[in-house]
Write a structure and sequence with these properties.
- The protein has 92 residues and is mainly β.
- Helix content is 8%, strand content 30%.
- It has 1 helix and 8 strands.
- A 5-stranded mixed β-sheet has the order 2-1-7-5-6, with helices on one face. It has a 3-stranded mixed β-sheet with strand order 4-3-8, with no helix packed on it.
- Strand 1 and strand 2 form a beta hairpin.
- The model has no long low-confidence stretch (mean pLDDT 89).
Length: 92
Protein backbone atom coordinates (compact mmCIF):
# COMPACT_ATOMS: atom_id res chain seq x y z
CA UNK A 1 0.00 0.00 0.00
CA UNK A 2 1.30 3.42 -0.97
CA UNK A 3 1.73 5.85 1.92
CA UNK A 4 -0.40 8.98 1.89
CA UNK A 5 1.06 12.46 1.77
CA UNK A 6 -0.18 14.87 4.40
CA UNK A 7 -0.65 18.55 3.60
CA UNK A 8 -2.63 21.48 4.97
CA UNK A 9 -5.33 23.42 3.15
CA UNK A 10 -6.60 26.49 5.00
CA UNK A 11 -5.74 24.98 8.40
CA UNK A 12 -7.34 21.57 7.64
CA UNK A 13 -5.03 18.57 7.39
CA UNK A 14 -5.71 16.60 4.20
CA UNK A 15 -4.10 13.63 2.49
CA UNK A 16 -3.08 12.93 -1.08
CA UNK A 17 -1.66 10.02 -3.01
CA UNK A 18 1.98 10.34 -4.12
CA UNK A 19 2.12 12.11 -7.49
CA UNK A 20 -1.35 13.60 -7.11
CA UNK A 21 -1.90 17.23 -8.07
CA UNK A 22 -3.16 19.71 -5.49
CA UNK A 23 -6.38 20.10 -7.52
CA UNK A 24 -7.01 16.34 -7.56
CA UNK A 25 -6.34 16.08 -3.83
CA UNK A 26 -8.68 18.99 -3.04
CA UNK A 27 -11.46 17.56 -5.21
CA UNK A 28 -11.00 14.14 -3.56
CA UNK A 29 -11.38 15.88 -0.18
CA UNK A 30 -14.67 17.47 -1.31
CA UNK A 31 -13.25 20.95 -1.92
CA UNK A 32 -14.66 22.36 -5.16
CA UNK A 33 -13.30 25.92 -5.05
CA UNK A 34 -10.08 27.41 -3.72
CA UNK A 35 -9.74 30.82 -5.35
CA UNK A 36 -11.89 33.91 -5.60
CA UNK A 37 -11.94 36.33 -8.52
CA UNK A 38 -10.43 39.77 -8.02
CA UNK A 39 -13.65 41.44 -9.22
CA UNK A 40 -16.74 40.20 -7.43
CA UNK A 41 -15.07 37.56 -5.24
CA UNK A 42 -16.65 34.66 -7.16
CA UNK A 43 -15.41 31.16 -6.22
CA UNK A 44 -13.21 29.26 -8.67
CA UNK A 45 -11.59 25.81 -8.75
CA UNK A 46 -10.50 23.41 -11.47
CA UNK A 47 -11.89 24.22 -14.90
CA UNK A 48 -9.63 22.98 -17.69
CA UNK A 49 -7.37 20.70 -15.63
CA UNK A 50 -4.39 21.23 -17.95
CA UNK A 51 -2.98 24.58 -16.82
CA UNK A 52 -4.45 26.77 -19.54
CA UNK A 53 -7.27 28.66 -17.81
CA UNK A 54 -5.62 29.72 -14.50
CA UNK A 55 -8.90 29.29 -12.57
CA UNK A 56 -7.24 26.90 -10.11
CA UNK A 57 -4.66 29.30 -8.65
CA UNK A 58 -3.69 28.77 -5.01
CA UNK A 59 -1.02 29.92 -2.59
CA UNK A 60 1.49 27.15 -1.87
CA UNK A 61 3.93 27.65 0.99
CA UNK A 62 3.38 31.42 0.76
CA UNK A 63 3.84 31.63 -3.03
CA UNK A 64 0.80 33.02 -4.89
CA UNK A 65 -0.47 32.01 -8.33
CA UNK A 66 0.45 28.33 -8.28
CA UNK A 67 -1.69 26.28 -10.66
CA UNK A 68 -3.25 23.55 -8.51
CA UNK A 69 -3.90 21.33 -11.53
CA UNK A 70 -0.18 21.23 -12.41
CA UNK A 71 1.42 21.37 -8.96
CA UNK A 72 2.16 18.03 -7.32
CA UNK A 73 1.38 17.80 -3.61
CA UNK A 74 4.52 17.58 -1.47
CA UNK A 75 4.62 16.36 2.14
CA UNK A 76 3.98 19.23 4.53
CA UNK A 77 2.76 21.69 1.89
CA UNK A 78 0.66 24.58 3.17
CA UNK A 79 -1.95 25.38 0.55
CA UNK A 80 -4.19 28.42 1.01
CA UNK A 81 -7.20 29.84 -0.76
CA UNK A 82 -6.10 32.65 -3.04
CA UNK A 83 -8.10 35.84 -3.10
CA UNK A 84 -7.96 37.67 -6.41
CA UNK A 85 -4.54 37.95 -7.99
CA UNK A 86 -2.66 36.89 -4.88
CA UNK A 87 -0.47 39.97 -5.16
CA UNK A 88 -2.23 42.49 -2.96
CA UNK A 89 1.01 43.01 -1.03
CA UNK A 90 2.53 44.59 -4.17
CA UNK A 91 -0.12 47.33 -4.22
CA UNK A 92 1.07 48.79 -0.93
Amino acid sequence: MTPEIRFVFDDAELTAAPGQSIAAALIAAGRRSWRTTRVGGEPRGAFCGIGVCFDCLVMVNGRPNQRACLTEVQPGDRVELQEGTGREHLAR
